[in-house]
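Subject: Sanity check before I submit

Could someone independently write out the C-alpha cells for this chain? I want to compare against mine line by line before I put it in a report. The sequence has 145 residues.
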Amino acid sequence: MDDYFNAFYDIVKETQESSGYVLPVDLESYIVMLLSHHIDKPDWQPEKSYAEVYLSLAETRPKKLSAKELGDACLFLTGVFPEYTIKRNNKKYYQDIGSSSYGVVHELIPGSVFKQLSTHFVFLSDFIEFTFNNNKDDIYNIRNL
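---
Independent answer below. Compare away.
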C-alpha cells in the first residue's frame, strides 16, 4: 500500500500543479489514501444499493464507520468511474448520497475533514475524475505495481 500511496501522492500533486487547483493538506491526504486503498480492492461497493445503505444509517451501529464507507464508495465511484454514473443518468444521485454520508460522519466527529468532504464533494469528485483522465498511463502503471 505504501507504493500505491506514494504513486497516487505524486499523481495528485501533478494534477494540482497542472490544473491550478490546490487542495488543503488534509483533503489531499484523504484523497490519496482513498485512491490508494480502493485501487486494488474488488469489493469496495456496498452489498445493498447505495440508497438502501444510506437509508439504514440511522439504524446502523457504528454509524460513523458505515457512513464513512458509503461516502468513500460514492466518491471513488463518481471520480474514478463517472461513465458508470452518467450511463445510469445518476451522477448527482451518487454525489448527493456521498456528500450526505460524509455529513453524517461530521455530525459524529465535529471539526473533522468530513465537513469539507461533504461540502466540497462535487468538486472533489470532479478533481478525481480529472486526475484519472489526465494520468491514465501512470494509473495503469500503478495497477501493475
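---
OP: Matches mine. For the report I'm noting this point. The CA atoms of residues 117 and 123 lie 9 Å apart.
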